[in-house]
Structures are given as C-alpha cells and as structure tokens.
Amino acid sequence: METSLILQSISKYIHLTPEEGAYFITLLQTKQLKRKEFLLEDGEICKYSAFITSGCMKGFTVDHNGFEHVMNFAPPGWWIADMYSLISQKPGNLNIEANEPTDILLLSKANQEKLYIQVPKFERFFRIITENSLVAYQQRLMDNLSLAAEERYNNFCKRYPSLINALPKKDIASYIGVTPEFFSRMQAKILRSPAK
Length: 196
Description:
alpha+beta, Jelly Rolls, 4-stranded antiparallel beta sheet, 8 strands, 46% helix
C-alpha cells in the first residue's frame, strides 16, 4: 500500500505520532480503477472518501439533456467524495469516475468515525479539508457567475497546474462551462496572443 503521499498530505495540517499514523493506515483500503471506471454513480450513497495516490478522478453531474457538468478533478494528493451524500448518508447526484488508470486509498465513513474517537486530532484535519473544499466550491460558483470564460480557464490553470495538458479538452471545457468548440477557439486565441 502506497501510504507516504497520504501521510505527507496529512502532516501539512496535523502532527501524527508513528503509532497514530500506523493506526490510520490500518483503516484504509486500496483500490485500483481502470480508465472510465466509476467509484460512485448518481443515485448511490457515498460511503467513502477517496485519496488519490496516482492517476486522476473527476466528479460530475449529468443534466436532463445528457450533458456532463464537471464539478471537480482530483489529481494525486487530493481527496474526492460526494460530500452531501457522505455526510447525510442519502443518495447523491455526483458521479465519480477515473479519467485514467487510478490508484486510490479509501476511508469509509464508519472508519472515519472510529478515527475521530481513537485519534481526535483527525477531526481537525477533516474540518480543515472540508472548509477548504467549501471555500473552493463557493469561489468556483462566484467565478462561474461573474467571470468571462478566459478568466475561468486561467483559474482552472492555477488550481490544477498538473492537469492542463493531461485532461481531455472536453472535460476542461465542461469544468469552465463552455462547449468544446468554444474552448478550442479560446485556447487558440490565448496561444496567438503575446505573453504579458
């Protein structure tokens, strides 16, 4: 089990003793996903938070016309879950799919609760992660309402620098809320314009 990345990520927020780190690792499950394989589908109850160790996941919804709306991406070192469903334990409407072959570590809701009892400082860690997620979501909502497509693309590049050339253009277009055709024209225009 590749656990150094997850322990490194946690150490940015809380300090764990070797024993606490070892206990945390015992609560995780490993899973390998093929490209296009789902971790979670619309209508299911989210029972796990997933930490990506390699590959990339995307969270998206599908509207009544069958159009995909990408909500977020999770490259290595990021967590992903349907927060509404995980917290409420009601069916969610988020699909979580592997963009490429992906390795993840899963922490079940039940084990997360166990962790809070055995190592209370993890409550602080997950509070910070949840707050960061909420701030990012609200910022993204504000950007979608008030920024031009080019500015939204610039924000995507800042948020996911490692994914700019790794993702299908249609996924990036969906994330910033434009058609793939518009995105191609916009990208060509950005490439033509002189660097500032």
